[in-house]
Amino acid sequence: MAQGKTEEVELIPTRDIWVGNKQAPVKMVMYGDYESEACAKANEVVKELLEKYDGKIGFNFRHFPLTKIHQRAHKAAEASIGAAQEGKFWEMHNLLFARRRNLGTISLKGYAKDAGVTDKNFLSKLVDSVYGWSVRADLLEGADKGIKDIPYFYLNDVDYKGPVSVAAFSKVIDDLLKQKKPAKKRA
Known about the structure:
With 187 residues, the protein is α+β, with helices and mostly antiparallel strands. The protein has a single domain, classed as Glutaredoxin, CATH 3.40.30.10. The protein has seven helices and five strands. Helix 1 links the parallel strand 2 and strand 3. The N terminus is likely disordered.
């Protein structure tokens, strides 16, 4: 009798999904949830910062769905990881925030198509929770760091405790950029 061969799928983990410049001197990481109004507002701030500091910052989003109050956030996070497998994370990420009040599984399939995802098995992978462990890994990592509320930010691996505004982030980012400037060589 032939043994059934299970196909192992190598997933791109969220820690490897960056927008902006991954090699930038300032790295911003946000833990968030696609149903959260505060996270949606924070995402708009991040988009402005990526534009303002084009090439100088890299951004990474980690999933921290508050499933007790946002029942659809976990599945939405899975959908973003599915889109990321085709290089469409950022497109899906922004669509999910824009449509955060309608995150049913069938809607997620439509958003994936809108984002440019071509995987014919996208819906079945969502139903089968193929990407669920990736979301759980982010959630556990955040919990291990003591995160309880979202949005939660790190700038260059340091907790950011200030207001979520372009002005407040800009002050910190400007300071970090000054620290990263190479020293001028003496003649």
